[in-house]
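step: validate -> pass
step: tokenize input -> pass
step: predict -> running
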Amino acid sequence: MKLLIILLMSFNIFGIEISVNGPDSPVGVGEVFDVSVKVSSSSKPEVNFNLENLELVAEKKEGYSSNITIINGKMTKTQGHNFKYTFKALKVGSAAIKNLHAVAGSDTELYKKKVQFEVVKDQVQDENIFVVAIPSKKSVFLGEQVILKYYLYRRVQTINHNILKFPELNDFFNRFSPETQGKSRTNYKGKPYERFSLYSGAVYPNVLNAKIDPLIAEATYPVRSNNSRFGGFGFGFSDKRKKTYASKEIIMDVKELPLEGRDESFTGLVGDHKIEFSVNKEKVLVNEPIEIKYTIRGRGNLETYKAPIFLDEERFESFESSSKIDPHRNYEATKTFNLTFLPKYNAEVEARKIPLSFFDPAQKKYVTRYIDMPKIIVRGGSEFAAGSNDLKPIGAPIINPNSIVGPFLSMGNSWVGSFHKTINIFIGLGLLITSLWIIGGFGKLSGLFATGEIGEIKKSKLSYPLVYRYLDKLDVKAATAREKVKNSDLSESGKIYFLKLLDSKSHANYSVKKEQSKMTFEKKYFNEVERLINKNKDYDEIEVIEGPTSRA
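step: predict -> pass
step: emit ->
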């Protein structure tokens, strides 16, 4: 224990050492190459530098080692940190890593040697291992699909490989997915290779002269070494090395779409497409949802494609909409739109064909497909202007008799007539109070136990479609439920109630969730409708009295 304490107390820290290892031969324009930097220090270091005619495309910390030595009773501890940087040469000439230095704790060490490289125009490609990008076409139209695949080719055994940097492809819309790294045998420039698929997908150029960026991968492979500790015994062991490879940049020939034959029906899609279309209802009520399902399948750039306008916003409110894309193995995709519209007013949208045109790159012309839009009929909206005096307003008196006990007791201005008028007043008040109590009591009681269709209407808080369909059952020759109410045998107060109910509910705005009408469920008026719909049935409900009912 004492010895351990003495050793720790004699621990000493020395400075920073830097070593750099890079390629000896010239590098080609666009070629990627690795530079290894090893920093020995007493604590974790940071490496910094400036670049000239180089682009840093990848960096990786590759290992850590620790070494402790004791000299003259003093302990020296060093930590070896290995960094790997991958650079790409930008243009012919000289390239350099400048001001390379390491910082560890409070210590900073500058690497004093030059790190410089010669960059030449053409560099011989490593024929044993390389990465290549292969587009299905090199001359295309804007928005035309190109199948782009990146492969690693090898003629020597590799231990493993992985992608360091995926291509950016800023000049394309793309639909990429990593490939399973299965291998196959093929020929490349007349020589046999094993090929590994690294990355593939469908891309759509959105600019002229679109650039296919390189993919950068790293491969680990065995190398025979005389320094191997087993080399002298014939075991055949070797060292492992890592090297970075990048595909070459490709500039595509991208052409503008022709103006001839292009009109407002052009979808922006290139290639042939299949279309499916359906509407859930062709006859609806105001504020009753119309659901449209629209599906399109093909090789076009469906990610940016938007559905056409099926119903105009002036008469139909777009309530809900959603879309999703399902890619397929043959590089086609399906985009499905689910659209919901709420009609605002009475309307009749005539059946029509909606044209959709696509550019066919094989024929170099536009082709047109059509959607058969059926006739849409909307009913149940407001049909009379505010202030109309064809109906009595809500609140008009229901009972307005000249004499409750009838005219047979009325005797002009005589004292007998006055007496009878007084009797009429008292009897009338008594009957009125009794009637109101009976109507109110039974109305409330029956309202609590509303069943059947009327019960559903009450539970729905006067749902407009349910109310409309219920009133539409009235046996009256008219086109709409509103007209049927007007021309029916309902009481005046019943007509006013239902017309006001239809009017307030038909103006509800679902998309902004405005407060719905505050009208309440009135069972007595629904009983009137029930009585008219089922004339042959007897009901025990209390009828609403309209004017004098007693006769002499």
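step: describe -> The helical segments are 2-9, 415-448, 452-459, 464-471, 481-487, 492-506, 523-533.
step: cleanup -> pass
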